[in-house]
Amino acid sequence: MQSKEKFKTAETVFDASTLRVLHKLRDRGYFDALQGPISVGKESNIFSAFKDGKLTIAIKIYRVNNCDFRRMYLYIKGDPRFTGLQSHRRKVVFAWAQREYRNLHLARDAGVNVPMPHAVMENVLVMELVGKKGVAAQKLKDSPPEDSKDFSEKIILFMRLLHSHGIVHGDLSEYNILNFEEKPVLIDFSHGVKLHTPYAEELLKRDVHNIYRYFKNKGVLLDEDTIIKKITQ
Ligand SMILES: Nc1ncnc2c1ncn2[C@@H]1O[C@H](COP(=O)(O)OP(=O)(O)OP(=O)(O)O)[C@@H](O)[C@H]1O
Ligand SMILES: [Mg+2]
Description:
Elements: H1 3-13, H2 16-27, E1 33-40, E2 44-51, E3 54-62, H3 69-76, H4 89-109, E4 117-121, E5 124-128, E6 131-132, E7 135-136, E8 138-139, H5 148-164, E9 167-168, E10 177-180, E11 183-186, E12 193-194, H6 200-216, H7 224-232
Antiparallel strand pairs: 1-2, 2-3, 3-5, 4-5, 6-7, 8-10, 9-12, 10-11
The structure holds adenosine-5'-triphosphate and magnesium ion.
Adenosine-5'-triphosphate binds near residues 128, 136, 175 and 188.
């Protein structure tokens, strides 16, 4: 990263209030020290962090000042868990982080492989780092599975488990699935909604379509209706 770019990242991610939150989380023992960036996404930056001398923690910092908060607002205002939310930038971003944290817990309770969520405060989410010896697992997009059929079946099973626990991921694709030792780990749950939310079905169809498209190109013969049936029946 060029030094100018680095400075820009530091400025947009580590504003004074985010630094305060990071200090609080560290003081409460969720991590000991930030290590370095894992990824810079559209709405967030992810860092690895040490705990008890090991790089086992991932910290997702939702940028408050450099995000498409209007799009985020549109996607969250219909969620009954966040009724009354006004289109204030900070509140929307905090709700977005909260929603990801809650959805990760729901997914975990459903038996789906997701990073263990440890804490959320304002725009900062602390979770388990998925990887080995501090090296984050790669996205499915960059690390195609050896056995596509088996991998796709595991993802569909996870989608079924989510569905039977009343939740839809809402942003599922090869970008939000990690390939960790040939097993899928679902990440990035901030779009996730409960089943009775008006657009839940639409999001489920989109998730199914993305999975269908990815595995079709890997030679796995599945059609979208069959996948939907496997998930919902
Ligand atoms: N718990 C984790 N363990 C390991 N790597 C992670 C973890 N969470 C996120 N990552 C990495 O960081 C990337 C971005 O995370 P995520 O998808 O949650 O954020 P995002 O803001 O949606 O980013 P993007 O815009 O790239 O989708 C992931 O693709 C993955 O490579
Ligand atoms: Mg993502």
